[in-house]
Design brief:
Layout (H helix, E strand, L loop, with lengths): L2 H23 L33 E11 L11 E7 L5 E10 L10 E7 L2 H10 L6 E4 L9 E3 L3 E4 L4 E8 L5 E10 L1
Antiparallel strand pairs: 1-9, 2-8, 3-6, 3-7, 3-9, 4-5, 4-8
Length: about 190
């Protein structure tokens, strides 16, 4: 056999093997596929069973409901109403929405209901409590509460999360006590 004959026979044979190799690996995307996990003990130890069950969630809702907020201006830090904390660790953003209802009579003085989220960090909280200055805050407020309606709400707004945990304070610039609800949806 000559070299030309071997080359002429090997080239189609190699192309045929490559075609079979690619066809065997290509399948519909919705078929079950095997996944192999390689363990690199010095970099990242993998042990136990690796499994994914159900839908992988990329968000988590949090509700802070029926919080009674008497009239208090946002600058009066010592009087702000504490609504708790929100754990944001593992999430990149939060969508906030705030609503409220006036308790009792229609308000005489127009005002807004607001929520201020301050990072739960010692130095940041100290400045907030001592000087009344919110560093790195996330703030949402409702439209103005007027004398013609007892209900008020904000638009839903998305904010970037920069800290793993935030403390929540509420304020109310109207002249009536408000029952407020803060809805937070943490997302990635």
């Amino acid at each position: 056999m000559t070299r030309r004959f071997l080359a002429a026979a090997l080239i189609p044979l190699c192309l045929g093997f490559l075609l079979l190799f690619f066809l065997a690996g290509a399948g519909p995307a919705d078929e079950i596929q095997k996944i192999f996990v390689t363990n690199f003990p010095s970099l990242q130890q993998v042990s136990g069973t690796v499994s994914v069950e159900g839908t992988i969630r990329h968000g988590a809702p949090r509700h802070f409901k029926e919080i009674i907020v008497p009239p208090v201006n946002p600058g009066e830090v010592s009087r702000l109403i504490s609504a708790g904390t929100i754990e944001a660790d593992g999430f990149t953003s939060v969508v906030l929405a705030l609503n409220g209802q006036s308790r009792g009579k229609l308000p005489l003085k127009s005002g807004v209901v607001g929520a201020i989220l301050v990072p739960d960090e010692e130095s940041v909280l100290r400045v907030f409590e001592e000087d009344g200055k919110a560093q790195f805050p996330i703030e949402i407020k409702t439209a103005a509460l007027t004398g013609s309606s007892t209900h008020v709400a904000s638009e839903a707004q998305r904010f970037l999360v920069g800290f793993p945990r935030y403390r929540i304070w509420l304020y109310n610039t109207s002249d009536r006590t408000i029952s407020a609800n803060l809805y937070a949806y943490l997302t990635n």
